[in-house]
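A.,

Following up on our hallway conversation. Structure tokens first:
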């Protein structure tokens, strides 16, 4: 008869297989260098309405972690670069960080990973000697709290740690970081964690001096005469994304490690740039991200690792307008802060499309004066006779609860009803027309294919309404199962 410890080991093995059974996922990064960042509850409502099941935070913001409780969303929290040194030098600081930012929120908030710093080796190279000690200290603190089977520890690195990524088969990490990289890979191997990679084909293309075609960066098929082939392995690469991931696998292999999966913690494409950034367009961003999602969700890996899915996080949820640098740096978001999509994007497992073009819609301008927006909203819902029921508390378009979001709904309802008799989309200069459908989740704008001017009821196609109701997703069920199995396993192994 099998003993309790043997059963515990089997249960832990089941836990390790759960992510594979789920298949690949596409998550999203949430940056916070945003003017008028929505309330945490409104951010989570947007995530739910678009069936986003995985998010990465760059810190461990208490408001977001509380808002994500019981959402069914898997959460990666971040140790900031400013915190790495202290945690690397002090096990006590690491334990305090885990207690405050992880243990305090589990199991209600499903924290599954900790990203230690952001591109530490290339952004703050002086911290390289304490990077792996910081990861070790955090892992030991998780072990002490019996959380190490639920929460993995890793650190995102940029492609810059690989000086010559093509051809992938000859790629290798920068030798100046050999000692740190060896320790890092040993840690990942010992803890069954993933290598976290920030991979940006946008930069690979724009900084490539015309070596690679744009179609290759955007996941578009290439004619046979332009196929990208590794001359050593004869592997065909259909996208720069795959080549970047494979270059990382070969770099890991060059250090005599294997079996460490590569997770892409950042990738994306800017939708707007300056005059010297002609490739930062909404069309290219839409093409890249929609093709990326299809690519990742097919569950396959790059040519050298075809059976290992490439779990990926898109950069990013909102435009971070407070960031410095070129214009494109502030325009990577896939949503505006009022919850409308920047361009049509297929998200979630139901192939839901946000922002379909099915006519002309009237929405609030992002830079509109708040007082004028308030006046316009009140006029539309009053004298303008727009049907504003859907933006009342408890209704499908109430969240996000912002003046701009509510004004967009009211403006559009008025415009769709009155444009045939002279009604305009102006509202003291606070409104604009767009061909992109601003509907999201169960909030349907008048003029979209599934809307009407009557009271809107939540759509049955989305597992979550913006109010948080509905049935749990498969991801949330697996998250709960994972927690239960871990708890049983830990209990049995302590017998």
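Then the amino acids I'd put at each of the 495 positions:
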């Amino acid at each position: 008869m099998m003993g309790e410890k043997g059963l515990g080991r089997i249960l832990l093995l089941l836990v390790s297989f759960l992510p594979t059974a789920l298949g690949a996922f596409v998550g999203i990064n949430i940056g916070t260098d945003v003017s008028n960042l929505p309330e945490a509850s409104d951010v989570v409502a947007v995530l739910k309405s678009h069936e986003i099941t995985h998010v990465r935070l760059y810190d461990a913001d208490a408001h977001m972690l509380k808002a994500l409780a019981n959402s069914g969303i898997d959460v990666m929290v971040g140790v900031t670069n400013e915190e790495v040194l202290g945690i690397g030098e002090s096990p006590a600081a690491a334990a305090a960080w885990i207690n405050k930012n992880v243990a305090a929120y589990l199991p209600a908030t499903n924290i599954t990973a900790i990203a230690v710093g952001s591109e530490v080796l290339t952004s703050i190279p002086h911290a390289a000697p304490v990077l792996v000690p910081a990861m070790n200290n955090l892992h030991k603190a998780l072990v002490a709290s019996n959380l190490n089977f639920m929460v993995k520890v890793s650190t995102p690195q940029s492609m810059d740690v690989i000086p010559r990524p093509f051809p992938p088969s000859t790629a290798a990490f920068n030798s100046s970081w050999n000692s740190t990289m060896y320790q890092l890979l040993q840690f990942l191997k010992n803890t069954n964690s993933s290598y976290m990679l920030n991979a940006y084909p946008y930069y690979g293309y724009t900084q490539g001096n015309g070596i690679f075609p744009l179609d290759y960066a955007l996941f578009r098929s290439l004619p046979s005469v332009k196929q990208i082939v590794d001359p050593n392995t004869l592997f065909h690469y259909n996208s720069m994304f795959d080549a970047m991931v494979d270059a990382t696998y070969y770099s890991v292999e060059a250090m005599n490690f294997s079996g460490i999966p590569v997770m892409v913690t950042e990738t994306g494409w800017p939708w707007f740039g300056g005059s010297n950034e002609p490739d930062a367009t909404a069309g290219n961003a839409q093409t890249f991200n929609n093709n990326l999602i299809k690519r990742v969700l097919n569950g396959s890996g790059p040519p050298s690792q075809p059976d290992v899915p490439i779990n990926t996080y898109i950069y990013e949820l909102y435009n971070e307008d407070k960031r410095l640098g070129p214009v494109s740096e502030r325009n990577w978001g896939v949503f505006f802060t009022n919850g409308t999509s920047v361009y049509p994007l297929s998200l979630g497992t139901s192939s839901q499309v946000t922002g379909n073009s099915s006519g002309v819609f009237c929405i609030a301008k992002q830079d509109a004066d708040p007082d004028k927006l308030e006046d316009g909203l009140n006029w539309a819902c009053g004298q303008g006779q727009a049907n504003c029921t859907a933006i009342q508390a408890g209704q499908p378009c109430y969240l996000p609860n912002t003046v701009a979001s509510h004004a967009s709904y009211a403006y559009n309802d008025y415009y769709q009803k009155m444009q045939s008799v002279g009604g305009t989309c102006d509202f003291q200069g606070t409104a604009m027309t767009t061909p992109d459908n601003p509907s999201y989740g169960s909030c349907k704008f008048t003029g979209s294919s599934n809307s009407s001017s009557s009271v809107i009821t939540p759509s049955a196609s989305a597992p979550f309404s913006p109010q948080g109701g509905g049935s749990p997703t498969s991801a949330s069920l697996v998250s709960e199962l994972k927690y239960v199995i871990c708890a049983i396993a830990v209990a049995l192994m302590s017998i």
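The chain has one domain: 4-354. Curious whether your intuition agrees with the design.

B.
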